[in-house]
Design a protein that fits this description.
327 residues; mainly beta; four-stranded antiparallel β-sheet; 25 strands; 61% strand
Length: 327
């Protein structure tokens, strides 16, 4: 709806066998349009954006029945055509009394707009004003044995001094000088996985880069899919890891099927039952019809099953929010 009609809702369901049984949606905030959430030791934490210039940190000690909030990201740039800062990630603490949050904004300049990643810090109950960490939009962040690792659309950086300075990661790949942008995830053995789609010559490639040394090197690569660069688009891949079970989902556009200025898109998934040693053939789990757009794709898992949540829009579909069990 209009900006005055935005609401943030929370739904929960136990991951205990059988079909998912969701509770009734609980309205958390008014005029709020994005959130990311983690379960801490003593509270449920969420980041959300309210309006164009403010963002909020929410916490709940009763599993979402009630919330407390404080403003954390203030307005960055208020001029020009890029007038918002949106929080994307909230992640585990580096120390017992310290939590970090990641956000991004658009910087307006004479040549247009550029994306910037900011790091904010909650320490001793006080919120420290965010500061610039890297370029691009955030795609994941983790704290590993005192090292802070941040993935963005521009690449991967890490810091060994609580975010005071960052090192840009080299890829170890002769085809690229840096680790290209992609969604960053971590498993229970602290291995990092960077799932990415990119064009290479006449091919579209879907691949996963792996680091087992806290992001210092990325020499291991798994190629999941290669396609004709003129035939398909492989877009916005996401990944989940839970024990040995891994899954990757993405939006795929068929360039041979064009209606007006739109490709026909479908949602695809591939999974590995053995921590990446073997992968299933990709299969479509949503092909909503012509001119659809599959957005906000997310995955989660209970270790045996994989669930997707996503939105479908298009001709005749205003906004259809869907949930499905994939594996």
């Amino acid at each position: 709806g209009s900006p005055d009609e935005r609401f943030l809702y929370l739904q929960t369901a136990p991951l205990e066998g059988g079909a998912l049984e969701f509770d009734e949606p609980l309205q958390v905030m008014h005029d709020s349009y994005f959130t990311d959430m983690i379960q801490g030791d003593d509270a449920l934490w969420a980041l959300t954006a309210g309006g164009f210039f403010s963002s909020f940190l929410l916490s709940s000690s009763d599993q979402g029945a009630s919330w407390s909030l404080q403003e954390v990201f203030l307005a960055g740039n208020r001029s020009g055509s890029c007038q918002y800062k949106v929080p994307l990630y909230f992640f585990r603490p580096l120390a017992a009394d310290m939590k970090f949050a990641l956000g991004h904004d658009h910087d307006t300049h004479i040549f247009g707009c550029s994306h910037r990643v900011f790091l904010g810090r909650l320490q001793g109950g006080e919120w420290i004003e965010p500061y610039l960490a890297t370029r691009g939009t955030p795609t994941g962040a983790f704290a590993i044995e005192g090292r802070l690792v941040i993935g963005s659309s521009s690449g991967v950086v890490y810091s060994d001094d609580d975010g005071e300075s960052f090192v840009e990661v080299e890829s170890g790949d002769t085809t690229a000088s840096r680790v290209a942008g992609g969604r960053l995830v971590m498993d229970d053995e602290q291995a990092l996985y960077l799932v990415q789609s990119y064009s290479y010559g006449t091919e579209q490639v879907l691949a996963i880069l792996v680091s087992r040394d806290r992001a210092s090197s990325w020499r291991e690569k798994w190629v999941l899919l290669r396609g004709d660069n003129g035939g398909i688009d492989i877009l916005y891949p996401v990944m989940q890891v839970n024990g040995d079970l891994m899954s990757v989902a993405w939006k795929e556009g068929d360039r041979s099927n064009i209606l007006g200025s739109y490709y026909k898109y479908r949602a695809m998934v591939a999974h590995s039952p053995d921590r990446g040693r073997s992968w299933s053939e990709p299969v479509a789990f949503d092909d909503a019809g012509d001119r659809e757009n599959i957005a906000s794709l997310a995955l989660t898992s209970d270790g045996e099953r994989v669930f997707a949540a996503y939105a479908v829009t298009g001709e005749g579909i205003a906004y259809d929010f869907r949930r499905v069990c994939l594996v």
